[in-house]
């Protein structure tokens, strides 16, 4: 797993496929997963937009980014130290569906 697509290595990875254990860019995701009926059933999640290394588990509506647990935690917990107690936590939704 890394910043670039595991398949073509040229474009930024956007989607994480659990079945392939691979991060894919959008065009590779489309071509890999339209190949046959079995691969269409792979469940995919977005890749964390901050570290680009982990599958995203949370979507921050306010910042419009998808984040993994680590980045969500480090990003949003800092806010709690400010007087911002209505903090960002309410702006996140848990990603658990398929794309
Ligand atoms: Zn690719
Ligand atoms: Zn797949
Ligand atoms: Zn992350």
From TrEMBL:
Region annotated Disordered, chain positions: 74-99
Extract the GO molecular function terms from the UniProt entry: zinc ion binding
Residue stretches of biased makeup (Low complexity): 77-90
Q: Name one Pfam family in it.
A: ANCHR-like_BBOX
Query: Which InterPro entries does the entry link to?
Result: CONSTANS-like_Bbox1, Znf_B-box
Among its keywords, does the record have Zinc? Answer: yes
Q: What positions does the domain B box-type occupy?
A: 1-47, 43-77
Signal peptide feature range = none
Q: Which keywords appear in this protein's UniProt record, sorted alphabetically?
A: Metal-binding, Zinc, Zinc-finger
SMART domains, alphabetized: BBOX (SM00336)
* CDD domains listed in its UniProt record: Bbox1_BBX-like
Record's PANTHER family?
ZINC FINGER PROTEIN CONSTANS-LIKE 10, ZINC FINGER PROTEIN CONSTANS-LIKE 9
Record protein name field: Zinc finger protein CONSTANS-LIKE 9
User: From which organism does this entry originate?
Assistant: Cardamine amara subsp. amara
């Amino acid at each position: 797993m890394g910043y670039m697509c595991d398949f073509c290595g040229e474009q930024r990875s956007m989607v994480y496929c659990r079945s392939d254990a691979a991060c894919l860019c959008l065009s590779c995701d489309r071509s890999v997963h339209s190949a046959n009926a079995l691969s269409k059933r792979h469940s995919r999640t977005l890749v964390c937009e901050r570290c680009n290394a982990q599958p995203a588990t949370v979507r921050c509506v306010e910042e419009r980014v998808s984040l993994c647990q680590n980045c969500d935690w480090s990003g949003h917990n800092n806010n709690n130290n400010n007087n911002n107690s209505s903090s960002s936590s309410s702006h996140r939704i848990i990603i658990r569906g398929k794309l």
